[in-house]
Amino acid sequence: MTKHKHLTLSDRNDIQSGLDRMETFKTIGQKIWKDPTTVSKEVKRNKQIRDTTRKGGDCPLLKKAPYVCNGCPKRRLN
């Protein structure tokens, strides 16, 4: 892992692409040479979600990793 303290735009794009492919934080971290915890914190800090689904309930999948709807098969159903 590198000692660079900040994520670049390229790193953030790689994280988003990895989430779209349903990769783990560990796999994404290895690809961008960052710790998986860094990836997890970045996702939690910068996620943007809707308040509820169309059916009126909060999605329980948002409470566990990867904390976003990227790559989720239920994403297009709501």
Could you walk me through the main structural features you see in this protein, from its secondary elements to its overall organization?
The chain is mainly α and 78 residues long. It has one domain. It has three helices and no strands. The longest helix is centred in the first third of the chain and has 12 residues.
The helix-and-strand class reads mainly alpha
Radius of gyration based on Cα positions: 13 Å
Per DSSP E runs of 2 or more residues, the count of β-strands stands at: 0
Strand residues, percent: under 5%
Shape: elongated
Ends apart, CA distance between termini:
38 Å
* Number of self-contained structural domains: 1
Set down the secondary structure blueprint.
Layout: H1 9-20, H2 25-32, H3 36-46
Domain Transposase IS30-like HTH: 3-46
Protein name: Helix-turn-helix domain-containing protein
Organism: Streptococcus henryi
Task: Offer a concise description of the structure.
It comes from Streptococcus henryi. This is Helix-turn-helix domain-containing protein. With 78 residues, this protein is mostly helical.
Key phrases:
78 residues, 3 helices, elongated, mainly alpha
